[in-house]
Amino acid sequence: MLKLTHKILIGGLLLLTSCGQATGSEKKDAIAALQALNAKTDTGITFPSYVDELGKAKIVVEKYKIDPKQKQSGAANLEIALDAHISAANLWGCSIQSRTDGFLRQCQTQELKGTRNQHPSIRPYVNELEKEVSPGFAFQHVDQNKALSLLWAEAKDSVTKVK
C-alpha cells in the first residue's frame, strides 16, 4: 500500500502534467487553497475530507511552483505549509490504519522521527517527552491531537508569512 505522501504526490504530478505553465494568479490560488485547508482544520474535518482537500491544495501549490519566475516569491513558505499538512495527514493516517496498538506506535514513531527533523513546531514537544520518558519511547507517548495541532499551527504560520 502506498503511503499517503506518495498517493498525493502521484495524483498531483499526474494532474500537473495536464495543467500547463503557471500564471501570476497561481500564487493567490495557492495561498487561498492552503488558507481554506487551514480553516477546515480549525472548524473540524474528517480524515477522508482532509486528505481530499490536501490533495487539491497540493495540486494548486505545485502548479504555482512550476513557474520559475514565481519560485522566489513565497514558494518556500507555501511548501513548508504543505509539508506540515502532509506530515499531519500521515500521522493521522497511522491511527486510521492501525489494527493493533503496537502497529499504531510503530507507525507514529516512524512518522514522528522524520517530522521532528523536518518541522520545528513539533521538535520542542517531542524533546520534552524525551525528558519525561526514555528517548527511545518518547514517540510512543505522543498525544496525536497535540501533534496535529502543532503541525497545523506551523502550516497556518507559514501561509501568513507569504507576501
Tags for this entry?
163 residues; globular; mainly alpha; 7 helices; single chain
Overall description:
- The protein has 163 residues and is an all-alpha fold.
- The chain is globular and about 50 Å long.
- It has one domain (4-15, 24-160).
- The chain has 7 helices and no strands.
Give the helix/strand layout.
Elements: H1 4-16, H2 25-43, H3 47-65, H4 75-97, H5 101-118, H6 123-132, H7 144-160
Percentage of residues in helical conformation: over 70%
| Total E-strand runs | 0
Q: What order do the helices and strands follow? A: HHHHHHH
- What are the segments in which pLDDT stays under 50 over at least 5 consecutive residues? 5-22
Mean pLDDT: 78
Rounded to the nearest angstrom, the distance between the terminal CA atoms is 38 Å
Total separate domains: 1
Which range does the strand content fall in? under 5%
Task: Specify the biggest β-sheet.
Answer: none
- Count of separate DSSP helical elements: 7
Shape: globular
- Helix/strand structural class: mainly alpha
Radius of gyration: 16 Å
Please provide a brief summary of the model.
The chain is mostly helical.
